[in-house]
Design goal:
By secondary structure, this protein is an alpha/beta fold. The chain contains ten helices and twelve strands. A hairpin with a 2-residue loop joins β8 and β9. It binds adenosine-5'-triphosphate.
Length: 306
């Protein structure tokens, strides 16, 4: 069994972590874009990496993919240091990058068939086309597809090689709501087959739908990591009860016993309180709290140093 150490996201019995990161650093001149990250991702897990623009997510992911060299720390991806990953290792990972490659003149099926040829054990091209919902566009040139349809081709190219580990960098940007839901189904089926998935996204609902765990990177540091429904800690999840008093004044109380509070307000007001709401913080609310408190801490550190 794997035991996750709170606060670091490392796995204690590590026999089969898909990704293992220790003390990872990446400096661009004086900027520490990644500033000492420790994280493990278990095999078969879907892990969502969250964080504001410029936080260091893509830098971290590109180091794991072998596209970027690190400045310090240790990294192992499927048991291999990505800085030394050979073709056999590359065939075991799938990548859907943020910006799509140039489409060229090939049709959807031609492009997928070509990519399938690069892998030892590819998926069936037509099955993949169906999985990403592009059957009707299989004979269309990629260059003639809409932005969202091209994104589906990117996803298809990422999974054609039957990867053990799939990197998805903001995969559903530009998808319409129905396409996003279809994509989530596809990811769930890949997960059911045992694929490990590292998802970077700004859509918190996507993280909540797909992620087993999530980590929040801010300013190059992993400020929180845990099961999606534990992120931010118990305190951040305390519900808010809101209602209007008899005179119209708005009251708001945070309590982990909302039913008890509502009962006492009803008894006191002698009936249904106006505008009554019990609000449970969403993942987005919790994420925004984390971002704000990390920003405030960084500000305090700067003040202390000044
Ligand atoms: N090649 C580079 N040279 C210099 N600085 C870079 C380079 N690549 C990234 N950075 C800087 O490193 C920091 C982290 O960037 P990164 O792309 O990892 O962020 P991100 O979390 O993926 O952001 P986004 O959500 O906008 O994609 C940013 O401040 C960025 O400007």
């Amino acid at each position: 069994m794997e035991i996750t150490t709170p606060g670091t996201g490392t796995i204690e019995s590590d026999a089969d972590a898909a990704v293992r990161i220790r003390g990872l650093r990446k400096d661009y001149g004086r900027l520490a874009a990644v500033d000492g990250i420790d994280l493990d991702i278990a095999r078969g897990e879907t892990f969502a990496l969250l964080g504001p623009n410029g936080a260091g997510k893509s830098t971290t992911v590109e180091i794991l993919e072998g596209y970027r060299l690190r400045s310090g720390g240790d990294v192992s991806v499927l048991g291999v240091d990505p800085a030394r990953g050979d073709l056999a290792w590359k065939a075991r990972i799938g990548i859907v990058l943020q910006s799509a490659t140039e489409p060229g003149t090939a049709t959807v099926r031609e492009q997928l068939r070509q990519f399938a040829g690069y892998y030892p054990n590819p998926r069936d091209v037509d099955e993949v086309i169906a999985a990403v919902g592009l059957e009707e566009k299989a004979r269309t040139r990629v260059a003639k597809l809409s932005g969202g349809q091209r994104r589906r081709v990117d996803v298809a190219l990422g999974i054609i090689g039957r990867p053990e580990l799939l990197f998805l960098d903001e995969p559903t940007t530009g998808f319409d709501p129905e396409a996003r839901r279809e994509f989530w189904q596809l990811i769930r089926s890949l997960k059911a087959e045992g694929t490990t998935i590292l998802l970077t996204t700004h859509y918190l609902d996507e993280a909540a739908q797909l992620g087993d765990r999530a980590g929040v990177i801010i300013g190059g540091r992993l400020v929180d990591v845990g099961a999606i429904d534990e992120l931010g800690g118990a305190e951040a999840r305390v519900p808010i009860v809101r209602w209007r008093e008899a005179g119209g004044a708005l009251r708001e109380v945070r309590t982990d016993r909302p039913a008890e509070l509502v009962a006492s307000v009803v008894a006191r007001l002698g009936g249904e309180p106006e505008g009554l709401e019990v609000i449970r913080p969403s993942l987005e609310d919790i994420y925004l709290q984390l971002v704000h408190s990390a920003g405030a801490e960084a500000h305090d550190r700067e003040e202390a140093l000044a």
